[in-house]
Amino acid sequence: MSNFFAQTRVIARRDFKAVVATPTFLLFLLAPLFMIVMAVLGGTGASQAVSSAQDKTRIAAIVSAEDLPLVQATDAEMRHLYPVEIGPSRLDVVVSHGADDARAAKTMLAATSPDYTAVLYGPLATPTILRESAGGAAYLSELAEQSLRNRQAGLTPGVRLSRPVAKEAKAATGSAQGRQVTGYGAVFAIFFLTLLLAGQTVGMLAEEKSNKVIEILAAAAPLESVFVGKLVGMFGVALLFVSFWIVLGGVGLAVLTGASGLPALTAAIGAPTFLILCVGYFAMAFMLLGAIFLGVGAQASTMREIQMMSLPITIFQVAMFGLASKAAGQPGSAVARFAEIFPFSSPFAMAARAANDAALWPHVAALLWQLLWVAITIWISARLFRRGVLKSGPGLFSFLRRRKG
Amino acid sequence: MAHSRYHATANEGMWPVDDDTPVWANDLVKHFGSATAVNGVSLSVPRGMIYGVLGPNGAGKTTTLRMLLGIIDPDSGARRLLGHSAPREASQRVGYLPEERGLYPAMKAREAIAFMGALRGLDWAEGRRRAGDMMEEAGLGHAVDRKIRQMSKGMAQLVQLLGSIVHRPELIVLDEPFSGLDPVNQEHLESLVRAESARGATILFSTHVMSHAERLCERLAIIAGGKRRFEGTVEEARGVLPMQAHYVPCQRGEEAARLLPADARFDGRAWHFEVPDGGAERLLMSLIEAGHGVAGLTMQRPGLHDAFVRIVGDARQQDAEAAR
Question: I want to staple B206 with a disulfide (CB 3.0 to 4.6 A). Which of A70, A157, A245, B61 is the partner?
Answer without folding.
Answer: B61
